[in-house]
Amino acid sequence: MKSPKASSVTIALILLLITGWLLWSSAAAAEETPYIRGAALIDTHGCLACHSGNLMGAMKVPPLRGCELPEEEFQAWVLYGCPQAQPGRAQQSRFGMPAYEGHLDPEDVQDILAWSQIAGHEVPDQAALSDLARGEQVALKAGCFDCHGPLGQGGIKNTGSFTGAIPGFSGEQFKHLCDDGDPAAIEEWIRHGTSERFLSGEPLAGLGRSFMSSQLTKMPAYQDILSDEEIELLVRYCLHINSLGPMSAERYEAHRAALASSKMEVTGQEDSLAGPSLPREVAELFSSKCIRCHGPKKQKSDYRMDTAAAAFQSGDIADFLEVSVIQPGAPRESLLYQFVSATEEDSLNEVFPMPPSEDERLSPEELKVIRDWIASGAPWSDKQTLQSAYSD
Ligand code: HEC
Ligand code: HEC
Ligand code: HEC
């Protein structure tokens, strides 16, 4: 016969186990990216039933992968079944394309667009010179995307693994597994298909090891398959994908721009140790239009932009709005771009046009220079300090 004391201890133990299990399993959710959410939505709504490309012309359906339509038109097609937005008067089947208004919201469509772009992405061909493009070719050839998702956006199922899926390269889990993005740790994963640094660094190392061995799909070791140079390219590629974060449609554009723009990297310029440099047009714009109020003499809004170290730090408004002043890869998420492209009305939402005086505002071409610079990752070498072009 059990004593009442013993059974209350048993109950307490069981409760403890249950709480532990709940905590453990809530941490173990696979990390979502726009690509993964988009894929799930496309599956839920059966889009590929018609957009499979297999109807032999029985219905004329354009491919959904790699759609090049502008965002607004894409949105109109999906929500209203036609090329222009018609809220509330969805044109059922006039074009054969159903209207999903009421079933999908605009954020869902953003995720579907990200899926469309990433799933339809074409890896640059051999002629492409940039290191990033070469890294992408190696990743494709080595099957990295088959397990880690296209462009490392994650989500391929993995029976017996901690989260049930293979993580991508884009989020926090990657940082966790790779010692906060340490190149040596990434290299270790690629060479050996595991990371001793990660396993021995874990507070629950035994648990990490048991999850690593219980997952049925394991990371292959590429040590004898890929050359040292290819592994180096892959390490840099993974870091680039991680720096962009989970890839939205806008960040996908940034990725495409970066693939095309880092061509100079391989020409081995002397300056390469100092990091990539601020393009001359951007430097001239900042010097002539911004530094006099955001430089060594004055720092309006507590914001200074004559060096890279300062320019990436928030001033008062970015702090208040909790946004980045410059978010590499994402112009529209960058306060600096929002400010230079703002109009007077935006001031109501704490977004103030820069420069403040109307006759100094940037032209559409100048705006594009800044947009492209941020989209390509906002390169700016530590060595470049800007001077005000004003002699005040
Ligand atoms: C019943 C079949 C059908 C289904 C299901 C369907 N579509 Fe379509 N879709 C079409 C047809 C047909 C067109 C072409 C209309 C035209 O151009 O006349 C089209 C056009 C489009 C376009 C415009 C593409 C372009 O390049 O012009 C987009 C975007 C699109 N569909 C997205 C979706 C999404 C997202 C889903 C699922 C949420 C979906 N479709 C489900 C039949 C379908
Ligand atoms: C057969 C499937 C498979 C292939 C192919 C594969 N991996 Fe992995 N990879 C995995 C699994 C499984 C893990 C372990 C994830 C875990 O423990 O949660 C992993 C882990 C990693 C990690 C640790 C961080 C993270 O986000 O997962 C990196 C980095 C990595 N792989 C890079 C690559 C690269 C680069 C390639 C191509 C050369 C590649 N992998 C090919 C399955 C694969
Ligand atoms: C005549 C002075 C002046 C010039 C020139 C100027 N600014 Fe400003 N800037 C300000 C003031 C003042 C603020 C605070 C907002 C306000 O009160 O309008 C500000 C705020 C900002 C902020 C917000 C920083 C933060 O987090 O608080 C950014 C970003 C910015 N400016 C960028 C620029 C850029 C880029 C240029 C050049 C294209 C520029 N500014 C030119 C005066 C100036």
- The CATH homologous superfamily of the largest domain is named Cytochrome c-like domain
Mean pLDDT: 84
State the order of secondary-structure elements, H for helix, E for strand.
HHHHHHHHHHHHHHHHHH
CATH architecture of the largest domain: Orthogonal Bundle
Helix vs. strand class: mainly alpha
The Rg value, from CA coordinates, equals 25 Å
- What small molecules does this complex bind? heme C
How far the N terminus sits from the C terminus, by CA atoms, comes to 93 Å
Q: Which percent bin holds the helix content?
A: 40-55%
Shape summary: globular
How many β-strands, per DSSP?
Answer: 0
Number of spatially distinct domains: 3
CATH class (first level) name of the largest domain: Mainly Alpha
How much of the polypeptide forms β-strand, as a percent range?
A: under 5%
Explained architecture:
It is a single chain. This protein has helices spanning 4-27, 34-44, 47-50, 71-80, 106-119, 131-141, 144-148, 172-177, 183-192, 196-201, 205-214, 228-244, 249-261, 280-289, 308-311, 316-321, 335-340, 364-375. It is mainly α. The protein has three domains: 34-119, Cytochrome Bc1 Complex, Chain D, domain 2; 131-266, Orthogonal Bundle (Cytochrome Bc1 Complex, Chain D, domain 2), CATH 1.10.760.10; 277-375. The chain is globular. The structure holds heme C (HEC) (3 copies). One heme C (HEC) is lined by residues 289-290, 292-294, 300-301, 303, 314-318, 325, 335-336, 339-340, 352, 354-356. One heme C (HEC) binds at residues 289-290, 292-294, 300-301, 303, 314-318, 325, 335-336, 339-340, 352, 354-356.
